[in-house]
Request: fold
Amino acid sequence: MLELGVAYVRASGLWEIARPHMERLVERTRESCSVAQLDGSDIVYVARVAVPKIVGLTVQIGTRFPALPTSLGKVLLAALPADELHRVLAEPSRSGLDARWHPEPAEREAVLREVRARGWSLTDEQLALGIRSVAAPLRDGAGRVVASINVNTHAAETPVERLLEEHLPMLLQTAGEISADFARLDTVPHVVRPA
Reply:
């Protein structure tokens, strides 16, 4: 029985742990919520709970965007060591999307330094017109950033002030809860079957 329970918990993974937390966040904010991971210089969406709103870009599981102009990507890039960050950003995007924001290296470094210092990221129409979002890191039991989670809004409906004052605290709480649940998953003992 224990072996079966452990196998189920391990198989569920981060995304199954995140989903109920994401659903509660969407209920509270009435905005879409996504989880992404880094793949080269792009982010790839791996989980999403959406609300029906018209936005300029379609997002679904597997959607790929350049990392730097997204809140999700800034969080992931800010967590990389300097040498890995430069290597990743040297790779061309495979998203097929030309973002609106193309910062010079000094501006890029300043933005990522700020993300590192405060522990979250804001993007205001840097990827595409009308898209505004905040993101926070998701961590494993060792404290490593394994993904990022965001709340995405339409810029015409949600001012930056509301995004930061209302949605950001709920997002940070949700990210902490998901990270804590994922850390607990890391503590589940491995069951070794006899040969």
In short: The radius of gyration is 17 Å. The chain has one domain: 20-186. The first helix runs from residue 2 to 29. Residues 1-12 have pLDDT under 50 and may be disordered.
